[in-house]
From TrEMBL:
InterPro entries: SmpB (IPR023620), SsrA-bd_prot (IPR000037)
The protein, known as: SsrA-binding protein
Organism: Oceanibaculum pacificum
Signal peptide as annotated in the record: none
Domain of life the protein comes from: Bacteria
Amino acid sequence: MAEKADRYRIVADNRRARHDYFIEDTLEVGIILHGTEVKALRAGRASIGESYAGPKQGELYLFNAHIPEYGMASNQFNHEPRRMRKLLVHRREMDKLLSQVKREGVTLVPLQIYFNERGFAKLKLGLAKGKKLADKRETAKKRDWQRDKARILRDKG
């Protein structure tokens, strides 16, 4: 596992997604970026907490992701911080994802933006179902029990 972490650098992480959704499946997709967006990502500045992915005109797009303007670029070459960004997915995968979104009531939630070992910006998408309040409480209860159990075992052994 540490070997995989060495191969890529996480730029933005949506930790809230695992709290609000059951993540059923994940998929790595490419993302089309402008030059100043890549520079801003390499500086570690991005937010995907409020973003989501969805179809538009037969393609898959990332909506509402915030990549701030790059300060070193002149104003005429800078990008719009919350613009739609096209995602690169194989047609068969996209058709499968969109059919699940329409039929089963799931949503596509971005989990991470990172640079892979080749230096390309990638987005990890999660196929997610929303949690109800009782589900969130149950998850918190399980997490607390696992923490307490580990503490008890560590103290006894």
